[in-house]
Amino acid sequence: MLQKREDRTIAFQLISFVFAFMLIVFLASILVTRNMYHNIMLDNQLDNMRHLAHERIYLIDGILFRIEGFARIAKSAMTDYGLSEEDRESFLRELLMENPQIHSICIADSVQQGKQPRIMFTVRHRFSERTISGTDYQYQDWFQIPYITEKPYWTEPWVDTEGKGELVVSYSIPIFESGKRTGLLRFDIELSYLQEMISGTGFFKIGSSFLVSASGTLVAHRDMDLVMNQTLFSLSQEYRGSGLERLGHAMVSGEQGHIHLTGDSPFARAWVYYQPLQSNRWSVGVAIEEDYLLKEVYAILMIQTVASILIFLIVIIIIYARVLSVSRPLKRLALAADRIGSGDFNVQIPESDNSQEIATLSQSFIAMQASLKDYIRNLRITTEEKNQIRSDVMFASEIQTKLIPKNSEHPFGIKALRAYGILEPAGDIGGDLYDYFMIDEDHFCFVIADVLGKGIVAAMAMTMASTLLPSIAPFYKNSNELLSRLNSFLCRNNIESNFVTALLGIIDLKTGTLQYTNCGHVPLYVRKIDRSFVKYGETHATALGVFDNLKIGYDEIQLNMGDEVILFTDGITEAMSAEDEFLGTSGLEDILRKLPTPNPEVTANSILKSVHQFARGSAHKDDITLLVIDYKHPDM
Amino acid sequence: MKAANFLNFTGVAVLCMLLFTSCKAEKSRPGDGKIGGAAASRTETNFTIRYRPKWQSQAQFAGVYMAHHKGFYEQYGLDVKIQRLLQAHEATDSLYHGCSDVVHIDLLNALEENRDSTRIVNIGQVTQKNSVLLVGKKSRGINSLEDFRGKKLGMWRSGSFLITELFLLKSKIPMQVVPIDWSISLFTQDVVDVINAMRYNEYHQLLQAGIREEDLFVVDLAELGYQIPDEGFYVTPEFYHAHPQECEAFLRATMDGWLYAFSHREETLDLVLKRMQDDNIRANRTHQGWMLEQMKEVVMPSTDEMGILKKQDYQNALQLMTEFYDFPRNIPYEEFYPNAAKKRR
Fold it and tell me: Does any CB of chain B come closer than 8 Å to the CB of residue A158?
């Protein structure tokens, strides 16, 4: 993980990007340079090769033409000047002795008359002559081809076993007497003489020259193992796909040009320039290896490569140093931020003038540090205040709890009824209210109310109501009047103008008459001894605390012995399930149907338990208040 | 045949000079003159046989070289001396003059040699198929056998020329015959239009001189019905009757040599090229490799048998010679090829 985070540093990313970019530029540059210089070098070297080939051809053709000239002169001496045989022999002998290029001369005249050919040569500058015996010579190329074609002929290299036994090249010219072919003259030149011309001075300077005979045989080449053993075509069979066959055909056909040879061969990866001799059908080639041709290109490319690597390294160092310079204050800022994060708001924020961006960032950090300090100070004050408020609220909650009558089986010792109330605020303090008290000895007054909203204001309104009602009840004794007075009080004193729904009832303990008034509150249920229930949903006015001159009515219900009066706030019917569905009056009535034996405490707790089950998993919370009053239920 | 390589003339020349001295030297060895002037002799343990190849060193004789080199001859109790080519003498002259014990010549030439009396007998047939081709240049207007009419044919003046001559006589195609030795230059220089060529040698030389196969019209005489096997080992009848076991041992060891050569191509070529180099004969590996492959086709066309002169082949040759070459005698198969009679026994 540490390594990965390191790889993503700014320095790494910048260097990677620069490296990739420079690599592409470098490769493109190498390619362009290589091709450009290659073509230039090739053109230059081809010119050099052409000059070298011309030079070799000039030398070789010079000697070959000279031999041809000697042969023609000798032929004329044999046939045209009427010389005696002795004079002819003498002339040829002098020609041989005075021209060291001539290796040997063979006179094959009057062969049809059975005259045996004679061969003249020198041994250590001394003249020597030998007669060829038999007729086998007539089937040798030097004799047979010019004799049949009646045209002069340059042979392939061959060994003159009748002469000095050397490898020679021969020029044979037919002799005619009186228009009739009578024999021929043969002038020999040593092959090694031509080979020396091919491999003369300067031979290896720009490449290697070679000489190819009319049949494609390599008669001169720097690799002596190839000479006379291989033809360009035999090499092409051995090294297929090298281009040697194309070269061979071009050279044997007397063409002039150049070719690039590839693959693994004695001419491997070489450029070859070739041009035919003028004197015979042989051809001179000059080969230069690709590596030699590209030597200077490689040098340039090497310099370019080294320069590129140096530039790259310098750029990398600069980038790295600059990134370090930029990232150092950033790291210091990060450290400072860490310390601020751990609560040290007085840490010194480092300032940097490296760059405008870093300086701006430092200033921002300083401003942020100051803001954070203010914020924390305010937060502390607010928290203290909040704690004070919370403490007050808890105190208020305790007061509110104490305002609610304590549950007892027979409140105020009255055997005629039982009452049980539950107030479950959503927060620390709630806006619901229930209360009951005796107006006089025969009248039991109860009230349940719901102040709009929650919190302190609602609790204060509730407190005012619960304080006011017992104090004025003895003077009015009617539920509608009592609530009318409460309405007037709330309208005068309710600062937040919170309205209050309320249901207030007065039970005449002697008659069992329940007079009640519902001001915008949820319905009242009376559960009968037979487990049935009656819903009283009619309201007698709107909610209290809004309109001062509100007209409020009432209803009366005749309670029977064992009737349970069930009162609640909308926290019951508006309880929400996890699926965001309200319990509603129908849900409440389902609960009422399943209630066990009538008992205010059991009834109240059963309803609360069922509501809690229904609302399980829901985030919605509201004050829940229940009050169950059991009229004249006998103790059991 | 004049199975010559145009590059080989140096060796030929040098070897020619050795002709008489070598022959004389071998004639004067101990054991000389045992039978009919043959110089066969038994060394301390091995029987010496002097073998004269048909031509100068090349892969055409690779079986003999490998049998010699790998010690097969010694294993058969022989001490074989492979002689240098004695160009000035016909091979059979070497036998008659007592310079050689076993010579390597063609079947038709052997028959011709026996025209008047049985002077040589076959102790083993090396090749089972004929390798002689007639090759013409399409550029000279030769695209079919009919185009041969009136054209110049460069035909060997000795050696394997007989089958070509029989072809001309039998097919009645008139051609101007130009006798030639070993050179292919007359063909490459367009002096002749058609040339005799051995598939394993001259034909490949033409390709190595830059002539493309598709530019050649090639007639395989064997495919035209002239299926006369060419090369075999020959000895005088006297030698054979004196040393029949040694003759058979020579054949068996040589055939073992061929089997080894065919399955060890590179080692064989190394040896052949070394021999050529030692003999100052110029050659290249590609050409010798081609020759070895082609020799396999004719020495061992099937794996059933090798080294045998089949009766049918012999009779075909005899019939051809009798019909078109005025051969006067009907030499019995068993007389010409005594191994046949021996096997029958």
Answer: yes
Tell me which chain B residue has its CA closest to the CA of residue A248: B210
pLDDT per residue over A323-359, tens digit each?
A: 888 778 888 888 888 888 888 878 888 877 667 777 8
Give me the count of residues in chain A: 636
Class of domain B132-220: alpha beta
> Which of A156, A232, A237 is nearest residue B6 as measured by Cβ atoms?
A156
Let me know if the fold of B9-129+229-344 is the same as that of B132-220.
yes
- Three-state secondary-structure class, residue A502: strand
* ipTM exceeding the 0.90 mark: no
Q: What is the DSSP letter of B345?
A: -
Locate A101 and state its tokens.
């290029």
The first and second tokens of residue A207, run together, are 């490449």
Residues of A with CB below 8 A from B216's CB?
none
CB A516 within 8 A of CB A506: yes
Q: What is the CATH number of domain A404-631?
A: 3.60.40.10
| pLDDT per 10-residue tile (average), chain B, 345 residues | 38 40 46 39 76 93 96 95 73 89 96 95 96 96 95 92 93 95 92 96 96 96 92 96 95 95 96 93 93 96 88 94 91 93 62
CA distance B68 to B71: 5
Q: Does A233 touch chain B (CB under 8 A)?
A: yes
Query: Would you tell me how many other CB atoms lie within 10 Å of the CB of residue A548?
Result: 12
User: B345 to chain A, minimum CA–CA distance in Å?
Assistant: 47
Say how far apart CA A195 and CA A192 lie, in whole Å.
Answer: 5
Sketch the domain layout of chain B as residue ranges: 9-129+229-344, 132-220
Q: Which helix (H) or strand (E) holds A153?
A: strand A153-154
Query: Which residue type sits at A43?
Result: D
Q: Which CATH architecture has domain B9-129+229-344?
A: 3-Layer(aba) Sandwich (3.40)
In whole angstroms, what is the distance from residue A335 CA to residue A358 CA?
A: 15
